[in-house]
Amino acid sequence: MLITLSGLDGAGKSTQIELLKRSLEQRNKRVAVLHMDHQIGLYAYLQLMRGLIFSSTRGADGQPTKKGESSNRVERHKDSWLRAAISRGKYTVLWNKPLRRGVYLVDLAIFLFYRLYIEKLKKQILIMDRYFYDRLVDVAGAQRGWSYIRFLALLTPTPTLPVYLDITPEEAYARKREFSVAYLRCRQTSYQKVFPLVRSSVVLASGEDIDATARTLEKLAIERTSV
Fold first, then answer.
1. Sheet holding 31-35, edge to edge
2. How many whole angstroms separate alpha carbon 164 and alpha carbon 5?
3. pTM, full prediction
4. In this predicted model, what pLDDT tens digit does every residue of 180-191 receive, in sequence order?
5. Largest Cα–Cα distance of the chain, in whole Å?
6. Which domains does the chain have, with CATH numbers?
């Protein structure tokens, strides 16, 4: 079984996932949770490589290894150069929409192996913090490119329970203050175009009553698990 939660930053995805995981485990269900951006696909692997590269130049305390003042200056320069290079590469992948549309297909193939291992071999319910629908929002343009977005949505395996947590841009901004209201409003518009393409999707209001949303999500998960 695959359960996915999508929505704006600040919609409460992590909170609802933790509550749902706890509830399912109390019912003796085995649950695995993965984060789309941090654990699946090219971007996640770039982050892993970044961590491995920089951890090798630092000691256990997180400080540069002691090789003398001159050597440390070289290491710091190297460290700074690598960070800048990786940041440029990350920016290219994150914000180059045509490139990300191509990478989408590769990440989709990678994800199928995750599903096979977790759902079929380990017999666990897989809950995704974000899913490919969030990536469709990432690569969607204001007007153009929606034919290809619909094509990618058609190729994407439909989860057992695909959930969109709906929240106003103003509420989302008040919770996290990570992105501007204007940016969040633009993303909300894209979500409202993407999710009607998803069969059996569910839209849940993610306002002040977190417990009510959690109860509804739990009920839906149990119903679809039983099918």
1. 31-35, 125-129, 2-7, 161-166, 202-205
2. 6
3. 0.79
4. 999 999 999 999
5. 66
6. 2-46+94-226 (3.40.50.300)
